[in-house]
Structure formats: structure tokens, C-alpha cells
UniProtKB/TrEMBL annotation:
Its EC number is 2.7.1.56. InterPro entries: 1-PFruKinase, PfkB_dom, Ribokinase-like, Tagatose/fructose_Pkinase. The gene is pfkB. Pfam families: PfkB. It comes from Streptomyces botrytidirepellens. NCBIfam families: 1-PFK (TIGR03168), pfkB (TIGR03828). Keywords: ATP-binding, Kinase, Nucleotide-binding, Transferase. This is 1-phosphofructokinase. It is an enzyme of class 2 (transferase).
Amino acid sequence: MILTVTPNPSLDRTYEIPALERGAVLRATTDRVDPGGKGVNVSRAVAAAGHRTVAALPLGGPEGALLARLLEELGIEAAGVPVRGSTRVNISVAEPDGTLTKLNASGPELDDAEAEALLEAVRSRVADADWIACCGSLPRGLAPEWYAELVARAHRAGARIALDTSGPSLTAALRERPDVVKPNAEELAQAVGRPIATVGEAVKAAEELRELGARAVLASLGADGQLLVDGTGTYFGTAKVTAVRSNVGAGDASLAGFLAAGGTGAAALASAVAHGAAAVQLPGSVMPTPADLDPSAVTTTSDVPLDRVLKEPA
């Protein structure tokens, strides 16, 4: 079972349009609403793969009630913590060429009692979890050290932690030695305080995060692939993608694939790459099922192309 923690979940509404014109009245060709937030997306991908998952998250207002219902319909158990504020609603606008414009709301502010209640919701379910995935930004009211406290409590209970966050929250949590951290290229550059333009520079940055406490680093490098640096070695993975439809949730699908495949080594990286590649070819934040995966399109290697220039430098 994979337990996910999403301190600032959302309802994600996606509109597909022919072209985005500022100031115009536009009509969407399709639209959909999905339960959102990085940890929620991980749960959705785990559930789509047929595994058990529990999503711990704050829920508030009618938006929170709808989010809980959508999770239930997907076969995801919601360990919901009632909060006074309303769950946020995020908007994504997708164009045919793959361009995505996102409007993310800030979400409710959590007080001390609500923050502690969320930690307790995790604690009460730790014994059943093979992995705990803590994902996303922290809402207003939670200090950057909140994730560090969660990692410390989970480790005391014997659980393995995967952490997907950035900025001060990531920095503070590293001292508690999370088992896996999952930055993208921009977050990796931010964490080490310098630009990243090549795969080799990304490897160096990942090694620095390990020196600061991370036991493994799974880094998403966008169209360039994914990088894994852990105790077994350094690996690089890529996949052939026919057409990008939406990259919303692709990194979360990758993390789900990585954890579902054991969370260590080249085989787990290959699963992460396959899940991410499948996700970008689906609409909105739809998570891939096993039928969407194409393992034959994935290549992983320990002969990392250090001099390769990133298509999307950070």
C-alpha cells in the first residue's frame, strides 16, 4: 500500500481549446475535472495500476466534498482532515501543440490544530504503508519544517518516505534523510543555487542533495528523460513519445511508477519513465493504466551521457 500526503490538494479543471487568445471569449472543445494535488495524482496513478493507496489530505467546503467523492469513485480511500477553508480549484488550458497555461489558487490556510490533525492521519496509517509519498507545496499556515517533522515521525515508525517538494520545505526536510526526493530540473537547480544545463550538471546537483541527506534522488529532466542517483549507482532513462498532449501530473505518475516498482535501482527508474511518458500523451491530468504503458519505448543506462545539453535547461 502506498500512502500519499497532500497538504494542499485541489480540484483540477482542464479546458482544451484550439488556441489561447488573450482578452477573447473562447470555447473549449473538451473539459474535465479531476482530483488534484501532487500526492493525490500519485494515488490516482497507483490506483490506476491496480494497487491499494490511501490519500491523506485536508478537505474543506463543497469543493472538498467533491474531491472526496471523486477519489472514492477512483477506488482511493480518502483519509480526510476537515478544515475551515475551502479546497482550492486550479485551472489548466491546453492547446493542440502541447502548450499548457495553468492558473493555480493558493488554497486554504491551516491552523495549528489542523496541521497536527493531518500528521495524526498519517501516523494512524503508517503501519500499513510500504511507502509514504509526501508531495506538493505547503499551504498557508504550515512552516517549511512541517515536512521535516513528518519525515522524522514516519522514520521513527519504520516507514519509507518519498518527498516531492521544493524550496525551503525540501531544504529543511533533507536533514531527516528522506529515502527518495523527486525534484524536476528547475527545483534541482534551485536546491543547489546554480543553473543546470547538462545531464552531468544534474548528476552533480543530485549528488549534492545526497550529501545533504537524501538517500536517493529521482530527477525529472522534462523532455530529456529522468535521472536516478541512489546507493546502487547512477542511471539515466528516456522514452520515445509520439505526441505530448498534457504534462499535468506526469511527474506524479513517474513517482507512482517508481514506488510501485520497489523504489530503487534501474528497474524502478524504467517504470518511472514508462509512467511519465504515458501520462504526457493523455488529456488533462489523466493517469495511465497498465494498458497505456509501453516498456519497449523505454531505455535506461548506467552509462550516463554527462555532456548531453538539456533541451530545457534550468
